[in-house]
Specification:
Two copies of one chain form a homodimer.
Chain A lengths: L2 H7 L6 H24 L2 H8 L5 H6 L2 H33 L4 H21 L1 H15 L3 H26 L6 H19 L1 H8 L6 H19 L4
Helix pairs in contact in A: 2-3, 2-5, 2-7, 5-6, 5-8, 6-7, 6-8, 6-9, 6-11, 8-9, 9-10
The first copy, chain A, binds a DNA duplex through helix 2 and helix 4.
Chain lengths: ~230, ~230
DNA sequence: GTCTATAGTCGGATAGAC
DNA sequence: GTCTATCCGACTATAGAC
């Protein structure tokens, strides 16, 4: 193995420019999520990244270019986080007719992973807020995120749900129900401030995430339970 | 009855200043909801209200003063919309021990009213977005809204839920479940853009609100159903 | 690639006539 | 109370030295 080949396999030593670029994207995720596009100034962004103001137009063309680059980085991160479960579900759906128990197990795994991502991980806090803001005022970044993550995940989720509810996949009632279940998770972010206050909590610790996940699981089991 | 007394009972002829003030608040609800505090400019606000730029500092002291006045107006509107149900629930809780069926009926009424408010009414669209943005970045307006509406409504909701779940009111598992159920409704706003696309809908029409409400009701009934 | 300096724009708020 | 005109600060983007 040549030194060149070895280098390609390990983390490549980032050039100075590439490093600045990366730090700017990380700063952008935090700052845009916290203050919104207009609320964030290029000075804030550069300061947080430890970079120069002029580095933004240099690397990304404009403030908006940096914003879109941040959206892309969310897609990449969410993709790598969710793709193991999504892949497993897609393979299961393609290969054989899923029975109830197998479908329920996959559904639980999907929701647990998703709730941990949305509620638990401190890094994902910025992602959720960024996405939430973009939904409030959808622009080019919304297209990137919707096509990059949401469509594929929702599709896998809806298919599993259709099996459990014994309804055709295209039934709008299945899709609506999928949204309501996702809402049970997302509320802890979109209304997180109010939720924490009403619960008398200071933050969503790991222990509390477990409490939430247990209830989410119970709710879902009851919602998809066969009618007797 | 004197003319003066008659005037007091009908809508009072608004003075020119009071009228401008009111139009500015209405514009503020729309514009701040759509673009956020920083994204909205005083020029946009004045134009939408058909008022002069200088009217904002004159009537409200500053752009922020107008923002807080808009928050207050949301509290008043939500109060008048929800208070009939909330009052009914509070009276029922105070006067007698509620049985399951009565509690369930009140819960359905509360959720139906709330979902119609959040998803259905076109005016409420601005309110929800305004509140959502304020949760993303809580400031003085959040206090006004939280203390003015959220606490009282959540309290009534949680008490009903505690009865149906046969658990003490203070049980965090009851409060968490309350949040998840609210999430089923709120998701159609906070993630409305994505939800509409995934459902293949253009907007939430009255007929579609009915579909959503039917599913919400079914979900809630299953969630609070007694364990067999 | 990174820096300083600055151009050019737009924002919120004010002054003062009416 | 309402208007026009204007100030002043903050912003994004660029130019050009290093």
């Amino acid at each position: 193995m040549t030194i060149q080949a070895a280098k390609r396999e390990t983390i490549p030593a980032p050039s100075r420019g590439e490093d600045t670029r990366q730090r700017l994207i990380e700063a952008a995720l935090e700052i845009f999520a916290a203050y919104g596009f207009e609320g964030a100034s290029t000075r804030m962004l550069a300061d947080r990244a430890g970079a120069n103001l002029a580095a933004i137009p240099y690397h990304f063309g404009s403030k908006e270019g940096l914003y879109l680059a941040a959206a892309h980085s969310i897609v990449e991160a969410a993709e790598s986080e969710m793709s193991p479960v999504i892949g497993k579900i897609e393979r299961a759906l393609a290969q054989r007719k899923l029975d109830r128990d197998a479908a329920a197990a996959l559904l639980h795994e999907l929701l647990e992973r998703f709730s941990a991502l949305v509620i638990g991980s401190p890094q994902a806090d910025s992602w959720s807020r960024f996405v939430l803001r973009e939904q409030l005022q959808p622009g080019a970044a919304f297209e990137i995120i919707f096509e990059g993550i949401m469509r594929k995940n929702a599709r896998a989720f809806t298919k599993l749900l259709a099996i459990l509810l014994k309804r055709p996949e295209g039934d709008p009632r299945v899709a609506v129900r999928a949204q309501t279940i996702l809402g049970e998770i997302l509320v802890f972010h979109s209304s997180g401030t109010a939720a924490l206050r009403l619960l008398g909590w200071k933050e969503f610790s790991a222990a509390r995430l477990k409490v939430i996940q247990a209830i989410l699981r119970e709710n879902v089991d009851r919602i998809v339970a066969p009618v007797k």
